[in-house]
Amino acid sequence: MMKQISPLPRLPLLLMALGLLAVGCKTNEKNYRQAYETAVAKNRESSGVDSTIYARIRNSARTSELVVSGDSLPMRTEYIGYTEDGGASRETIGQYNVVVGQFKQVFNARQMRGRLQSSGYGDAFIIHTREPLYYVCTAACKTPEEAAEAFRKVKEDKSIVLREPLPFILRPAHLAR
């Protein structure tokens, strides 16, 4: 005659197995980071460039040089928008604008604009790109010569902290046609 085993002794064993299974399958930050880095590496290998929408927007910006009296100034041509309370509009924007700050947060751009205004750059303004990146500009110029003079002024001003790729001349795409 066969002896039957009661289901009760199996219950603790089953609960213990389920507990180990639940703990062993937990994802953690290290797993996420490793999966992310693997995906980024595969993406770069397959396409050669970062294929995010932001990369496409950045790549659509044309980089060139503005040559004025033998000097070459870095220049970008991009589509721009006018940031609320940024001090710029379609009427006040220049053909050539001197950019001294770029930020992902409008709060930081507004802080820099305020510091510039209190340091003698009363016409400082903020515009943004499609990404959006918020650009802080010190001058809106109509001619390349005006832009070169404003560019030299900010380069020589030790009170403005500039990091690569700053400063540069921004030419709004709608005015570059």
Low-confidence stretches: none
Mean pLDDT: 81
Strand order of the largest sheet: 1-2-7-4-6-5-3
Strand content: 15-25%
- General shape: elongated
Q: Could you give the order of the helices and strands?
A: HHHEEEEHEEHE
Backbone CA Rg: 28 Å
* N- and C-termini, Cα separation: 97 Å
Number of separate strands: 7
The SS-based structural class is alpha+beta
**With helices defined by DSSP (H or I, 4 residues minimum), what is the helix count?**
5
User: Helicity, in percent?
Assistant: 40-55%
Query: Biggest sheet, open or closed, and with what strands and sense?
Result: 7 strands, mixed
What does this structure look like?
The protein is α+β, with helices and mostly antiparallel strands. The chain has five helices and seven strands. It has helices at residues 7-24, 29-47, 53-60, 106-118, 144-156, and strands at residues 62-68, 71-78, 81-82, 96-103, 125-128, 134-141, 168-172. It has a seven-stranded mixed sheet. The termini are far apart.
